Every structure is written in C-alpha cells, then in structure tokens.
Amino acid sequence: MTARKLDGTALAKTLRAEAAAEVEKIIAAGGRRPGLDVVLVGENSASAVYVASKDRACEEAGFRSAIHREPAGMSTRDLLALVEKLNANPEVDGILVQLPLPEQVDADQVLEAIDPAKDVDGFHAINAGALAQGRPRLVPCTPAGIIELLRREEIPMVGARAVVMGRSLIVGRPMALLLIGEHATVTVVHSRTRDLPEVCREADILVAAIGRPAMVTDRFVKPGATVIDVGIHRVTDPDQARDYFGAESRRFARMSENGSTLVGDVHPRLVAPVAGALTPVPGGVGPLTVAMLLKNTLAAYRARCSQGAVS
Ligand code: GUN
Predict the structure, then answer these.
(1) Where would I find the beta strands (DSSP E) of 115-192?
(2) 105 and 200 belong to one structural domain
(3) What residue owns the CA closest to ligand 1's atom 11?
(4) Is 5 considered catalytic here?
(5) Structural domain boundaries enclosing 151
C-alpha cells in the first residue's frame, strides 16, 4: 500500500477562494473591509516567512492587512500597549501575535491581553475555555484546518480511535478537543507516555505534533491509518535526507541541488507504505493554517458586526 496524499495546498486554495468570495460580497454590499493585524517581534527567520505568507494570503483574499514589525528587545509593557491600541481600533477584526516571542517578553500576559473577540489564534483562555466546554468560538488555526481536511476528505471521525501526539496550546490540546467534538475516541500522548509506539498503533487517525524530525516511523502506524503530520523541520544533512526520502527520490535529488529540504514529524519513506492516507510536508497542514486564519478573521468580523461593534 502507498498512502493517499492529503493535499493541503489544494484545500487551502479552495478555502482562500471561499474567503475571497465572502469579502467581495461584503464590499459589494457597501460593508467595511475585514482587517487582520499581525505583530512580529524580533528577527526569527521562520516567523518572518510565516508572517509574510499570512500577509500575502490576506491581500489576495481582499482583507486589509498590516504587519507591525517590532524590535527584538521590546518590553512586555510596550507590547501590551500595542495590543491595547489594536484592541481599541474598530478597523481591526483580528490580532495575531506571532510566536515564539523573545525571552524577555511575558508571552502569557500578552496573549491574555488580546480582546477575545479579536483573538484569531484562539489562544486566549476565554476561547480555549469555550472550546474545552464544547462551545467553540475562535479555534486555533492549525487544528481547525486539520478538521476541515478530514471532513472534506471524508475520513470517518465518528467513533474513530484518534491519537494526538503532543499537548501544546497551539496544536495538541485544541486538536484533541476538536476531535472529541467530532465524536472520535481520543488519546493524547506526549514525551512521558509509556509504550508510545504501541499506543499510537491503535489510531485510525494519528496526528503527529511533537516537534521531532521523522520520529514517527512505521512502528507507530496501524496499516491503513490516516496520518496527519504537523511538524516542519529543515534538513541539511544528505545522509538524513537519503534516509527520509530514499536515494532514488526526486526529493533527495532536489535536496542535493538546493542544499536543504523539509521533513515533518513523520518519517515519509517508512510511513507512506503503511498508512492509508498521509499529509505531505510541505503542502499538507502548513497551507491550511494560513487559510483558516482568513476564515477566523472573517468569523471575528461577522461576530463583531452582529454585536454592533462596527459596521
Ligand atoms: N507560531 C507558530 N504557529 C503559530 C500560530 O499558529 N500562531 C501564532 N501566533 N504563532 C505561531
């Protein structure tokens, strides 16, 4: 068996087109343009790439988009002042503070300062609490994108065994709660779980969000399972790339030309023959995160408009 590829890029394109069509309708009806403000503190190169792709997606879909580039040495107080300014601005529907923040910044305090109605990351305790209580409002983009992918690919979730690897605020915890909401039977595993491969091998749906390159091998995967790879890691060692992709693969050949390639938390060469369906890296979960950010910004816009906050 070779796993069916779950094409996140294609679905993201559809979701972005849906968002663009909705913005067009709003504008045609004389409405205000939805707006997203992203805060980027410091010089983290991966964050800069993510933020640029969010900005591009917003513009393509017709959103007003602004990036606030702040110095790496910024204090918590100054960042809180910026968040307060964005909270108070009626043109701002969504606020996203890109993580990770520099060490001197109290990230928890900053995330809790964002108006929950504008919290398009869904990280605020109010939104996380609503999700935990089964009344989701703004939901973190990566797990929301994964649910959308599973739905549209018609992967059965009701009654399925799902194993979520990782318990982060951004992916693992909200992913588990969303899968419970879809009536899956959910297990969350992490670095201290005993018999990790055996537990993962129970899964019909395995979500790998552990942040370790290619850690999930065939030992972790039940034949035919759906495997969702949330990881993204740069590989520069040719021996590693040969192991991950195979010496004959196009990926290995291209890596030899470019000097680097990407791998997820899942070992593609070992898992593809066992899994029933698998998200590629890149082109799986990553593009969905950006697309869901647009959807969340529209949801925040609609909710704020209907509460009379703005028109
Ligand atoms: N850093 C990595 N992923 C994310 C995300 O989804 N939101 C924010 N704010 N920062 C991130």
Answers:
(1) 161-165, 185-189
(2) no
(3) 99
(4) no
(5) 141-286
